[in-house]
Amino acid sequence: MGTRHLARQAERQLERHGDGDSLFFEDRWYTRGWQAEQAARFGAGLTGLGVRPGDRVVVLMANCPEVLVTYNAAWRAGAVVTPLIFLVSEEELRHALADSGAVAVVTTPEFLPKVQAAAAGVDSVRFVVVAGADGADGAHGAHVAHVAGGAQVLGFAEVAAAAPGGIVDAADDDLAALLYTGGTTGRSKGVPLTHANLFWCGSSSHSAPGADGLTSTLMPLPLAHAYGLLVTCVGMHAETPQRSILMRWFDPAGWLKLAQQHRAQRTTLVPSMIQMLLAQPLEEADLSALVVVSSGAAPLAAEVREEFERRVPGAAVYEGYGCTESASIIASNPLGARRVGSVGRPVPGCTVQIRDDAGQVLPVGEDGEICVQSPGVLSGYWQAPDATAAALRNGWFYTGDIGHLDEDGYLYVVDRKKDLIIRGGFNVYPRDVEDVLLTHPAVAQAAVVGRPDPRLGEEVVGFVALREGAEVTPDDLVAHARDRLSATKYPREVRVVPAIPLTSVGKLDRKRLRTLINEEGADPAS
Predict the structure, then answer these.
(1) What is the CATH number of domain 6-195?
(2) 426-428 and 421-423 as β-strands: parallel, antiparallel, unpaired?
(3) What is the pLDDT of residues 201-243, one digit of tens each?
(4) pLDDT in tens, 494-518
(5) Which fold has domain 250-416?
(6) Can 6-195 and 250-416 be said to share one CATH topology?
(7) Mapping DSSP to helix (H, G, I), strand (E, B) and coil, where does residue 145 land?
(8) Which pTM was predicted?
């Protein structure tokens, strides 16, 4: 058995910390022992249903303890977890099921109809397991005996009624997870990650300076996603017992209540969530225990960070950076030594270089493509040799992100390479324009894309959503940007919309905006 086997590492952590409350979810604490026993039982149940080493098991669930149990159970059975965020469309789910050749799906009741529809006609899917099928906590799920689209549907507790099983051997370079990219620039690609990749992800994240000093974390982000794997793997290396407060899904008022109730010291958010929290009465809440707000997945506007920290004086927002292909982690800001505007230093074991279009390394301070080497980087995309050849060159992963390093090794992410707007031969980074639009007091959200222009090649177009009760004209916003940006950068057109569309992981959905940019009167958020 490989020394980095994730299920074996989970067992070592249980032996190290012993039993005890570790996960709070919907008015109940779950112990480390309960989670371990459920994983041993559910893993044995999967094996009994015919899951074999290397088989892919899709996890598409609302947040609940069974997400983490399923990860560990699948690894115990030698299977490969394929987490999919529950917001994926039926078409996206069908693509992932077919492309991965998944044999099973683990889901929650509200997504069962979508799973059934997507699995219809995908011959590899043999059964679907539903957690919480009785509407309770999933530990007592009722038997759900029927067949849909050729796949048998079973209750989670029914499968987990098996006697606890052992751990199937797996080598360090055997697959542990098959994730799918967000597909913001095309059809999503499969990202295979090994036990060694994910073991390193947890170890390096844990060993980043100051990472282990806090023990109470409020978690509103989707666990059935790359983030959930990161959380799982980091927890396997914690030196002190951790207590996590899990939200089924994010809502600002619920977050505020739980943060106070549990004296949360740390929370993990994306920028769109932080913006939503600014509409809450933060000053009236007791958030004195909150020290660290981790922000990732998308750039955070300086104005949003400053307002949050002003209204929650004891908390500091720490940006980090990673991607699916790097096992979710590349850089993080050290606790107590953050550099505002930066995503931090590369984590231990990770090397970052900035390269130009010819692949030459650029000097400190110059913008170019962020390239990464680390034990967490994938060896190649799933069944996609052309994509692999484009992204992996001479042992370096080319992220497609633009950024630079400063003299102290802190990394600054500027934008996505594919989002770059070239206007009249000049490079315009959307984030530069968005940050300026966000300085207008009426603007709550902003997104910028390029539209084809016969004379300049591309023109800069801004979309904004306004703060509640605010009023401003598009011409006023154009003028605001013109006063603060060069003539090559400012948007000649700004559209006021009800809401800025976001992807399933909270990033600006520029692809959606591009498809609508010439459709007069279209609602980008629809």
Answers:
(1) 3.40.50.12780
(2) antiparallel
(3) 888 887 665 555 688 999 998 888 877 788 888 888 888 888 9
(4) 999 999 988 766 778 888 888 878 6
(5) Rossmann fold (3.40.50)
(6) yes
(7) coil
(8) 0.83
